[in-house]
Design brief:
The protein is an alpha/beta fold. The chain has 20 helices and 21 strands. Helices cover about 35% and strands about 20% of the residues.
Length: about 600
């Protein structure tokens, strides 16, 4: 038997740096650097994530056949220089800010890799959207599929589409910078007062509170959308190409005001802007998908790139009838580029065969991060002075806790890869509770009250509770709560955030103001412990749906270690915590000052 072939994929230096290790084409481990450094969206070289991946395989860097970086830095540098020259002298401040970083760091990837991990072997540089496309198709359960990638920008490309078949991915068409659907959405993220590259999901969550009264204005002034989904932006309204802000004074004039100040009150204007750009985004995406299907004849579709995290648009693609099957890379943003880069080397450059299992994907539920034995967990808890009880069945203990409408920190097994907590690093609660959304937002997560929470539902029950026929394992599809579970309302028209006051279903904690939910289906084979918890909860309450949100506070990455979990537990008003086999209740813990724990977090 020949020795296994290991390939390391690396994503770094923009946001959400990450590493992925594959062995003979199978993913061994993958993780974002932020989970180890505790710096949200950490863009630095993922030294700790790489160390974890190598340790998980019990190898060293010298055992690697190759490494792959997720884009071509020289091509991206060319785009930056050309953009600055075209906009000179307006881009001088941005140029002076960016150039030192490029000249000292970003142009020297081989040397950095050799210095950081001791690898000086063969190094590949697939293009950014090639990495996205590879991450979308190769782990999918499809032998062939159409592929769509959409994000802010890679080197030059902002949107691309093509096909995947067997072990080949071919990108056919692209749209180039500065015309970018991702950057258009980010411009509205910025204008409505949220942080670019992390607040886009807030904008999506805000959209149902508003009316799309600006949609026609956006299409008339900002973006020219063709029938095939291609588009061009009117660049005078934007400042991202060479400036330090996303929008220009012309944008401000068009929408009658300056950008909302972060943390200031959200007004009806922000809600209507969110609804409008969401509607326009969906129009572009649906037209693009229709064109791709017509051109390729494929009825399977794979998505990646930051725009693929827009789960509302994804749900509409699935319901459009344009395709039969949809698969979305769970780490659709830059972190997932590490997966795609490694797989591009395995299939494109090494010409390896690809075997597909049609009933399961190759991401293993995205449970690709570190796990911890009970011995390590107990040692950590003892060091923290925690008071705990060890139980034989953590899932039953957890179900009993949340059935009493208590908030539970739930830490089990391998950490998730990507932006979503999928039941291993989660804060969970009773979806039937009318107070749960407000409690979790304000007392646990320390975030905006309008933010919706997602449900976790047993896969076999999903169509009984939501208007969707197939699974949604990665929390990347939105669908309506099933009509059987909706409540009659009093008919009063509520505006803006007052819509939160209306109870719309018998699972109100996860029902958004438009009766929708961002769904995670839980498979008993992929995550047996989490599935068992929900099954126990159903036996206790009759309901197979619980609330699932990421185990962190606002501004902090999802917890990675047992120590992270205990610190977050003590810094919030969480009622209980289960880590591995160990159950803790807040009332039993040593007297502490919550603020001391809270001060350890960056709550920006």
């Amino acid at each position: 038997m020949s020795d296994p072939i290991y390939i390391l994929g690396i994503s770094a230096f923009y946001h959400d740096s990450a590493a992925c290790l594959i062995r003979n084409g199978q993913i061994v481990a993958a993780a974002q650097e932020e989970r180890f450094t505790r710096k949200k969206h950490d863009p630095n070289f993922p030294s700790r994530a790489i160390k974890y991946c190598l340790d998980a395989a019990e190898i060293s860097a010298s055992d690697l056949r190759a490494a792959a970086f997720y884009d071509k830095p020289l091509l991206k540098f060319e785009r930056l220089l050309e953009t600055y020259l075209m906009s000179s002298p307006l881009g001088l401040k941005s140029y002076l800010k960016a150039m030192p970083v490029w000249l000292k760091t970003k142009l020297w990837i081989p040397k950095i890799i050799e210095r950081e991990i001791g690898f000086s072997g063969e190094l590949f540089f697939p293009e950014h959207h090639e990495s996205h496309a590879a991450s979308a198709f190769y782990p999918s359960p499809f032998q062939s599929a159409a592929i769509l990638t959409m994000d802010g920008v890679g080197e030059w490309t902002t949107t691309s589409w093509g096909t995947g078949k067997d072990n080949q991915v071919k990108l056919e068409k692209e749209i180039n910078f500065p015309h970018s659907l991702g950057l258009l959405y980010s411009a509205f993220t910025y204008y409505t007062g949220f942080r670019v590259n992390s607040g886009e999901y807030k904008l999506m969550g805000l959209a149902p509170y508003g009316e799309p009264r600006y949609s026609e204005l956006i299409k008339d002034k900002l973006i020219d959308i063709k029938e095939d989904g291609s588009y061009r932006l009117e660049m005078k309204y934007f400042n991202y190409a060479a400036g330090l802000t996303m929008t220009s004074r012309h944008f401000n004039k068009l929408f009658n005001g300056k950008p909302r100040l972060p943390e200031s009150p959200i007004t009806q204007r922000e809600m209507d802007l969110a609804a409008s750009i969401q509607q326009v985004t969906e129009e572009v995406v649906l037209k693009t998908v229709a064109h791709i299907v017509a051109q390729t004849g494929e009825r399977n579709l794979c998505l990646a790139g930051g725009v693929a995290l827009n789960c509302v648009a994804n749900g509409k693609i699935l319901r459009s009838g344009l395709i039969d099957n949809l698969w979305i890379q769970p780490a659709a943003g830059d972190a997932g580029g590490a997966v795609g880069a490694a797989m591009a080397v395995w299939y494109h450059h090494l010409g390896s065969d690809r075997t597909v299992t049609t009933d399961v994907d190759a991401m293993q539920g995205a449970y690709l991060g570190p796990d911890y034995s009970d011995d390590i967990i107990q040692s950590t808890l003892d060091d923290r002075g925690a008071v705990y009880t060890k139980v034989d069945d953590p899932s039953l203990a957890g179900a009993k806790i949340i059935s009493e409408e208590k908030v539970l920190g739930w830490f089990q097994g391998r950490m998730e890869f990507g932006p979503r907590a999928l039941g291993n690093r989660s804060i969970i609660g009773d979806a039937r509770s009318v107070e749960m959304q407000t409690t979790m937002n304000l007392k646990i997560k320390y975030r905006e009250s309008f933010r919706p929470f997602a449900p976790s539902v047993m896969e076999e029950e999903i169509s009984n509770w939501f208007a969707i026929d197939g699974p949604s394992p990665y929390m990347l599809l939105v669908a309506d709560v099933h009509s059987d579970h909706l409540l009659d309302t009093d008919g009063r028209k509520l505006d803006g955030l007052d819509k939160l006051k209306r109870h719309r279903s018998n699972i109100p904690a996860i029902t958004h103001v438009d009766n929708s939910a961002r769904i995670q289906s839980v498979n008993k084979h992929t995550n047996p412990e989490y599935h068992a918890l929900i099954s126990h909860f159903q036996k206790l309450t009759g309901c197979p749906v619980i609330v699932n949100t990421s185990f962190n506070v606002r501004g902090e990455p999802i917890v990675a270690s047992p120590g992270d979990a205990y610190r977050c537990f003590m810094a919030t008003e969480m009622d209980s915590l289960i880590v591995g086999s160990f159950v803790m209740h807040k009332a039993d813990q040593p007297t502490h000052n919550k603020q001391d724990y809270l001060n350890e977090f960056d709550l920006d």
